[in-house]
C-alpha cells in the first residue's frame, strides 16, 4: 500500500482542486481520483475513533434534573412514535400520572409500544381533528414533537413542511389553549439560534418558537435539540453511500454537535416545570464530519470516494458572525445565540440551562403567519411559500430584537458592528446587520459605533 502523498490539509486541497463542487454525478475519472485521495486520508486518519465517540453519545444522559411530577395529570404527546417521542414516553410512563396519550399521524412505525400509553391517529395539520382530540382527551400537559425533521426533505417538500411544522404547531398550541392545559412544551432545533435563515426546516422551527411566545398558559417552554445520534440522518446517509456510491460532504471543515434521545427526552420533561427556552449547557467537543465519514468508511471496508460537493439546499454554510459572543458563549452553550445568552442566568443543573422566551410574536409576525396559512390553503407554489416564510422569519427577528432589554440590545449592536472584518459577507448576514441596527437606533446607540 503506497504511503500518503502529503499532509491531511494537502490531500484535502488536492481533492477540492481536482473535482469542483456542485456536481450531481461524478464521472469515472473524477471518482477514481477522489477514491485514491480518500484512501490516503483514511490511512492517516484516527481510524474509527470519531465514529466510536459518536456512537457512545447514545448512552449519555442529563444528571441533576428533578423528575417531573405528573401525579393526577393527563399527558398528551404529539409525534410519540418517533425516536425522541418514544424516549419521552418512556420517561413519562415511569412517573406517577393519570393517563398518557400519544397522537401520531400513523406514518411512522413505533420503535416499540410503551406499556400504558394510548396511541391514537391524528394528523396535526388538521385543525378540526386536533381540536376534537384535545377536547376528548382534555390534557393537563402537552408535549409537541410532531414535525418534518429532515432538512433535505424539507427543501423538497416545502408545503408539507410548512403545513406540519407551522400550521400543525399553530393547531396544537390553539387546542392546548382552548382546553386550558397547564403545561405546553415544544420541540425546536439548535438551528433556531440563527438570527435569520432561508432553510425551510430551520425557518419553520423559528416560527414555531414565535408562535409559542404568544401562547398564554401557565407553563410554555421550548427545547432546542441538536443532532440526535440514536436516529442519525448523517450516519444513515454515510452507511448508504459506503455500500455503493459517493460520500457527499458539504465541506471538509464541518463540525457539529450531537446528543442522545435520552438527553432530549429528559430535557423535554424538565422543560414542563416552568416557562423558558431549555438547552443542554455542555454538548462536549463537536464531531468532525470528515473524520466521522472516514471512520464509517473504514468500518465498512468501503472504497467509496469522498466528494466535497458544496452546500446544498437545507444546509447553510455558516451562521452570522455575531451569533456567539465569546463573553457569554461558554456559559450559555452552543444552542443559544448572543442576544439570548445575555440573559442566560437561570441554570436547571450543571448540564442544562433555561432562558426566558422573549416576545417574538408581534402583529407583523401574526400577519405573516396568517399569510402562510392562506398560501397553503390557496395552493401557492413552493417558491411563494418560501418567500412568505422568509418574510415571517424576518418579522420574528424584528419582534425578538424590539422586545429585548435596552442594555442587551446595545451590547448586541456593538458586537454585531465589530463582527465583520470587512463587508465581504453573505448578503443575508448584511441584512441581519441592518435589522439589528434598525432596532438599536431607537435605544440611543448607533450600531456602527
UniProtKB/TrEMBL annotation:
| Gene3D superfamilies on file | NAD(P)-binding Rossmann-like Domain
Q: Specify the domain of life of the species encoding this protein.
A: Bacteria
**Where does the record place the NAD-dependent epimerase/dehydratase domain?**
75-191
Extract the PANTHER family matched here. Answer: POLYSACCHARIDE BIOSYNTHESIS PROTEIN EPSC-RELATED, UDP-N-ACETYLGLUCOSAMINE 4,6-DEHYDRATASE
What's this protein's name?
NAD-dependent epimerase/dehydratase domain-containing protein
Q: Which organism is it from?
A: Pseudonocardia halophobica
